[in-house]
Amino acid sequence: MFKRTKVTDGTATGQVGFRKKSKVPGVMITQYIEKLPEGKSHPDFTRKPIALTIQEGKFAFFKAIVTGDPKPTVVWSRNNGDVSDPARYQSKYDPNSNEHTFEMPHVKPDQADTYKCFAKNEYGQAMVTVVLNVIEVGFKMTKAPQQQAEVANCNFKKVLKRRSKVVPKAEEPEKKEGEIDPKFWELLMSADKKDYERICAEFGVTDFRWMLKKLNEMKREREEEQAEFVKNLSDLKPIHINADGTASFELEFDLLDPSSSIYLYKDGEMIPYTKELGDKMKHCLRKVGRKYIFSMRDLMPEDAGFYQLDVEDVNMFSTDFKMVDFLVKIQEVKAMEREDAVFECVISAPLSKLMWFGKNMPLEQGDKYDIEVSEDKLIHRLVVKDCMVVDKGIYAACAGIKSCNAWLVVEADKGAPKGKKSARKTTRAGGSGTDLQKVAQEQQQKLDKEREERKEKIKAAREAAAEAAAAEEPEKTADSGAGKDKGAAVEVERIGHSAGKASGGAKQDGSHADAGGGHSAGKASGGARKDGSIADAGGGHSAGKASGGAKQDGSHADAGGGHSAGKASGGAKQDGSPADAGGGHSAGKASGGAKQDGSHADAGGGHSAGKASGGAKQDGSHADAGGGHSAGKASGGAKQDGSHADAGGGHSAGKASGGAKQDGSHADAGGGHSAGKASGGAKQDGSHADAGGGHSAGKASGGAKQDGSPADAGGGHSAEEASGGSRQDGSLADAGGGHSAGKASGGAKQDGSLADAGGEPGITSGLSDILATRGQPAELTVKMNTDCDGAWFKDGEPLKSGGGISITKDANIHKLTIHSCRDTDSGLLRFVSGDLSTEGRITVGDVPEFDEDDLHKFSKPVIVRVGQNAAFKMPFQPQESLTVSWFKDGTELKDGGGVKIVREPNHSRLLLRDCLRSDTGEIKIQLKNPFGAVEATSQLIVLDRPGPPEGPVETVETTSSVIEIKWNPPKDDGGSAVTNYIIERQERGHSLWTKLGDVSAEKTSFRDRNVTHGKKYSYRIYAENPQGLSDSLETADSIMAGIMILSGPPGKPKVVSTSKTCINLTWTPPEDDKGVPIIGYQVEKRKKDTNQWLALNAINEPIEDVNYAVKDVTEGAEYEFRVSAINESGAGDASPPSAMACAKNPNMRPCFKDPEDFLVVRAGNSVRVKISYEAEPPPHITWLKDDEPIAPWINVINTEGMSQLVIPSSKRSDSAIYTIKAKNSVGEAFFDVEVRVTDEPKCPGPVELEQTVYGKVAVSWVPSPDQELDDRLYYVVSQHDSNTRMWKTVADRLFANTYTAHNILPGIEYHFRVYAKNDMGLSDPSQSPTWGANSNRVPISSNGVSSMEISFERPPSILVPLKVHTPPKGYQLYMTCAVRGCPTPNVSWYLNNTCINSDKNYYITNSCGVCSMYILRVRENDGGEYRVVAVNSLGKAECSTKLTVRD
Average pLDDT of 41-53? Predict the structure, then answer.
């Protein structure tokens, strides 16, 4: 059971915690006290840990940021386990970033759990949970029996390991020829029906009826499995490439149990993912409503594969992600305006749609673009219709992570009418320039051929299955040896098909399962069973080796036949005899093992250059040997009576000799295949045992048995040494064949006849300390000066061969070999021989390694600008004795100066400050420990302005109208391509540089067409890239345009007239034009008391006439002028200067410019009367009011050319005629302005109606009080009748006080309104009494019946009183009450007994008895007692309240 971590609550006994809500979802906060002290706070999370799914062995960590005052303490725990082990769990705090980190280096599957983070201080605690999922790496076949044992022991937790139903490629069983890939069915179950045909064609399935029948059965089973975990599975979208460069697939479903786990697989291997697509993990699975979206970023070719999504152990969706390539890429297109442009390409595999981009924007089928795909889906086209100049740019086609792009260049139609569009063209421009149909057909034929081969294999497999089912009995495997020993057991052989090594897994009893065949140059060996025996090994088809394993009794199982240059040998049984060996099909060797009685078991036939020899029986005779089919020789062994056993046919020049019998005769020897030698070992009686054939210049000899005779040796096959191992009784076991030039030597005899000569035993080469890499072999060798025995010990315990360790002895050399080093192999090894010993320590460890995702991320170049900092970061797993080094272009970097190197336990960072362009280069990080080193490289690219273009500037052409120059591109483009060149020009004698234009980067020349004949120019060229402009390349000398022929000087200029803004000149043409036509003139001026002549017009803008108005003058300044004649060579000699001329106006009497003579102003506003004038000299200005001097409060502002009269606050009495008087020495001028100061008129008096004539009514009214004050006041009359119910104006601009209304009809009510109107607008209306139906009614007599009149009059009363208000300062306020009374009472508002009805700070209304007061912003002085008083003729009512203003 797990030990649960206990975290005590911070509340005291009996104390109640208060739950608080956090701004961060998922955080639970408990506050210990109800009200916090000022400035204090309970803990809270501003960043909570994020759930993590990570691969076993990686570095896992959670990060959190907490706040609170006082500063909280952070504690981590887990639900089902303890986090106190510092080797597995580490809590850290970074005071700079305020981050709390919980780290788990080398995370293990048992650390998968729900973790909790507690933040506490004295006022409360905050808690958040986070889940860690750990993906177990790999799947070993040895786990199967372990899982069975764990089930038997009721340990179900370890049994529940995630596995995809599509196994990884490395673990796929050998597929039979024609067998259908399991991916076929998985894809079909997740695909739409329209895709069935495509998938069947891809996998070579043609029997659709059989396919649909089986698919329906599988779907039913799958749906039943899915129903246990999900419901409403729908909207399955296969994987596709998105516009942002990511790949994704989608599906929708509802989980029956929200806690169910979701797993992702690629090619059968589980992949880690995160729930947010960030920069930490490559894969992301996020949920949006019911939709689950799998995304993958940073696509690489190795990302192609078969992806599956499982819920628990049930597959929900499968999709295949394929990578295609471009066989023909899109090419640059040059199109005319209004023409169609075509981009086309061919891809390597059918794809229904490519992603097209134009100028970095995705393109879709529409009015502007046509996207075409051929029937075979290999040819794709983009048609840009009706090209315009704005369509110019880069266009790209994207198929997954592969893309190609090309330019579209649109040339303007020069033949189009000016200002109009050219006609739409029906032609198409572009194309690839190759026969796309041919390329596509070749690719289609290739794909079809692959499909047909797949179909043939499936067909052949079905036929073979049918024949096997029809057979009555399965065909039994024949024994491969020519003469099989009756006592030998034959194991089933397997055929080795591959160059790899296949070994059987260990069964529950410890034995290995059968190993599959190794097809090429591989080795297949049987696994060891519980009893020590090796299971059957598959045959090696090509240069492979198959050997039988040792059984518990010491015998080897049968070995499969070596089909090509391989070796198959029988294992030794308990009695010492090898088991039967399978036939060696090509240059292989099969030899029989020796039985207990000394005889060899039957050996299989060697089919090619092989050897088969019979074993020696107890009586000394050899067993029958299989026939050597090629270049081999087989001879029978000699029997006890001297006769030889039958030998297989010897085919080639080999030598075979029999071993010596007890009576001295030689036993038969196997055939020597190629100049080889085979000799039998010497038995106790002096005879030699049979020796295997030497296949190629090799030598094979038997090892020494207990009686001193060498054991049988296998043939020498290949430049290696094969020697017999040491048996329990001290004799050497049979040695395997060495294929070429190898040597196998026997050990020393018992009587020492073969031992090396020497003196006292001693160690010539002993042990030393070594370092071994985990998973790699290690070998320790001890060399003695004599052939003597020894023993190996590890940490004091004796060692024997087995369990991954081999102990061998070759004469005086003793070796201990560890086939695959593990951590348990570390220790002190000691070799002891007699009184001699030597020892050395072996330490097993790992070479440092990088995570693939981190390596991929680090390999991306870092691009910075000059002056910026470049940062590199490389995570790695924490290790002891790890040295981290950084290099730039092979030179190691040291910390200091502009280099900052930070080393953390799990990562290292490199910071290069203020990068220069020269810092561009390769950045490498090296991790090194005693076991080795690993490196990762990246590139640093520092972007800068390009260097200057390469000179010198060459003059290609110079004429009177054109100068063409040429230069070379810059040596350094600054890290980004040069986009264009900018050309500037300076005319000789001028200091100004003028930009002429720019040219594209492909062009390094420029034609200056805007030059003047005879002038000299200097040029400078800049290169530009996205980072800016380079330094300039300047011409060494000025370049002259053509040959200079200048005109003579014109006549002396004359001043025609002058003013303060203009001086008019005239002159005569030159007398001598030198035969070159004059195209114009240039005028220059010089100000008095200066020496600089300034040109008034440019050379390229000549004055065509012989007169000119100089406007660039300063009033009062004196100037002189000169003129030069301009021809195609430039400006000639200047004329003599003119007389000095002063820029001033001639004398003139004052005159006014466009003045206004009438002005109306509302009373209270300011009056501004502006009058502009012209006069020379400046006049004296005087203002009069009604011919009298103006009052002193009226301001007069005089400026040059304008005078302004200002009345700050006007009154009606300011209405008058104002006169301006301007007078100078030449004369004077007057102008009158009428100013009318008025206001909106008051309404007229009561209106009376009188009918003098039928159908006419005289309307009269009392004049408005403003009639006497405003002579521009008049009246407007509006009429309303009961028929139309609308008001209409019947009279306007009435200056009288009467009006006669016409067409007044009986039975209709009429109403009249009279308005007073002036320049400010209308007054309020005066309402007339009703005229019409009601006034003409005849009174009805009551016939003597008295009636009582009902009166509705009543005094005022308060229906709803005022309420108390306490608004804050600055807020708005409404105050209301309801009042009733008849007649309608007059309502007044009072604040502290002061009436506020007319105060503009209060907005007061009375609507149908509802009295309201509104204050926009309450002030302090608005506080006090408010009172409402309602008064009519019958009485008075009032109510009051208090207003308190809060701060």
Answer: 90
